[in-house]
Amino acid sequence: MVNKITVVGAGNVGATAAQRLAEKELARQVVMVDVVEGVPQGKALDQWESAPIELFDSRVIGTNGYAETAGSDIVVITAGIARKPGMSRDDLLNTNAGIVKSVALEIKKTSPNAILIVVSNPLDVMSYVALKVTGFPRERVLGMAGVLDTARYRSFLAEALDVSVRDIQAMVLGGHGDTMVPLISYTTVSGIPVTQLMDQAKLDAIVDRTRNGGAEIVKFLKTGSAYYAPSAAAVQMCESIVLDQKRVLPCAAWLQGEYGMKDLFLGVPCVLGRKGLERIIEVTLTAGERAALEKSAAAVREPMAAVSL
Ligand SMILES: NC(=O)c1ccc[n+]([C@@H]2O[C@H](COP(=O)([O-])OP(=O)(O)OC[C@H]3O[C@@H](n4cnc5c(N)ncnc54)[C@H](O)[C@@H]3O)[C@@H](O)[C@H]2O)c1
Question: In this structure, are strands 2-8 and 188-189 parallel, antiparallel, or unpaired?
Answer without folding.
Answer: unpaired
